[in-house]
Specification:
Length: 250
């Protein structure tokens, strides 16, 4: 299963000036853990194609000391097929490590190395992992196939750079944000744009909700991300009109 339609783009030389990916969600209720980690967000997304549930993504975002971890597991509704991802990044948005694996076999790891991101791909057919380098800074976003929590983190990074707290609430500029991203499963780098739209009424789990809309676009695709600005900007819904796909927080 794959929802992204991407092609390689030259993003060499792109410089991203970031505030912490979790800076907007850091305030509010957080669940303390014995290790000292704080849960910023956790839950699950249902993935629906033409109204039929095809997969469930279970995720958690935790912050500990100066690093954050984003863990996710995707299970298909039709069988035992599953994928797991584990993304670790610093408070400044720098990649520490990304790991992906699937139940059917095969895994990959992305690590920063000098001025590159180095991807190591392991398969059952070969004992030695294949390697591929990408001329990307370590602040490049990971936007892997099927993991919608990665879109939530990217939206937070965009809002952190474009919004400022005001007495009446968060004030956001309408300027677009351009990001260089890596799609590890496709072994592809690309360029995406996020655009603040504003609050709109949208159908959410059988009721009408007013949510904050951000458009996520790239070459040959367009997504609408819907976040709850009254609940720490959590991602509530994603619509992919071209694929008759909706992703809804359970």
């Amino acid at each position: 299963m794959k929802f992204d339609r991407v092609r390689r783009r030259d993003v060499a030389g792109l410089v991203l000036f970031l505030i912490s990916a979790l800076s907007l969600a850091g305030a509010g209720e957080k669940k303390e853990k014995p290790s000292g980690a704080q849960t910023v967000d956790s839950g699950s997304f249902g993935v629906f194609i033409k109204g039929q549930r095809v997969a469930t993504e279970t995720f958690s975002i935790e912050q500990q000391d100066s690093n954050s971890t984003i863990k996710s597991q995707l299970k298909e509704a039709s069988g035992p097929a599953s994928q797991k991802s584990d993304l670790e990044m610093t408070a400044g948005g720098e990649l520490v490590r990304y790991d992906w694996s699937q139940g059917a076999g095969g895994s990959l790891t992305v690590l920063p190395k000098d001025e590159f991101l180095l991807e190591k791909i392991s398969t059952a057919a070969y004992s030695k992992p294949a390697e591929q380098s990408f001329l990307l800074p370590n602040t490049s976003a990971i936007l892997d196939n099927n993991f919608f929590v990665h879109r939530e983190v990217l939206a937070w990074r965009y809002l952190a750079a474009n919004c400022k707290p005001q007495p009446e609430g968060m004030k956001c500029q309408n300027a677009p944000g351009d990001f260089g991203v890596l799609v590890p499963q496709d072994r592809t780098s690309m360029h995406v744009r996020l655009q603040f739209v504003g609050k709109e009424k949208v159908s959410f789990r059988g009721a009408e909700r007013e949510l904050l809309r951000i458009n996520l676009t790239g070459e040959n695709y367009a997504w609408a991300l819907w976040l709850d600005d009254l609940d720490h900007f959590k991602l509530m819904k994603v619509t992919i009109a071209a694929d008759n796909t909706e992703v809804v927080r359970d």
